[in-house]
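Limitations

Structures in this collection are predictions, not experimental determinations, and the ligand pose is part of the prediction. Treat each record accordingly. The example that follows, with iron/sulfur cluster as the small molecule, is included so readers can see exactly what is and is not provided: the inputs are given verbatim, and the output is the predicted complex.
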Amino acid sequence: MPLSTEFLKRCKECKGFCCTLVIPPVTEQEKEKILKAGFEDHFKYIGNGIYKITKDKNKSCPYLQKDWTCEIQSVKPDLCKLWPIIPYIKNNKRGFIVIKCPIYSYLSKEDIIQAKKEAEAISDIVVELIWDIPEKIKNKYKQFEYEKI
Ligand code: SF4
Ligand code: SF4
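Predicted complex:
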C-alpha cells in the first residue's frame, strides 16, 4: 500500500493496533532483504523456508517504533505492505478480504486492485500461516468490519 500521510496519522492514532496483534510470517527472501538493509535480526526459522518475527517484550512486532511507525517501512514483508487487504484460500482458490480499519476509507479503488494483484503472488504456505492464529486474536479484529473483495 503506498504510504500516505493520512495512513501514518491514522496508524499513530490507532497505536499500531495490527502490529501489536499479528506479525506475518516471512520468506527467506524477505528476511534477507531486511537484514541486508541493516536492520536487527528478529527472525526464527519455523520450517518450509519460512521465518517468524519474534515478538518483543510487549508482545508487539519488534520493528514497531515508539511513535507507532514501522522501522523497516521500506523493506517490510509483503503482507504488511498489503494490509488491510488479506488473502485467504478456500476450496483451493485465492480470495481476499479488506479489513475496515481506520485507514480503509483512505484507500482508492486502484490501491485495492493493485493490492489484490500483489497478494496473488504470495505463496500458499504464507497465506495459510497468516490464518493460523488463536481465536482470541481473531476476535480482537472483530472490532472492525470486513468485506470480501
Ligand atoms: S489497524 Fe489499520 S489504522 Fe490501525 S495501525 Fe493497523 S493499519 Fe493502521
Ligand atoms: S514489520 Fe512493520 S508493518 Fe509489519 S508487523 Fe512489524 S511493525 Fe508492523
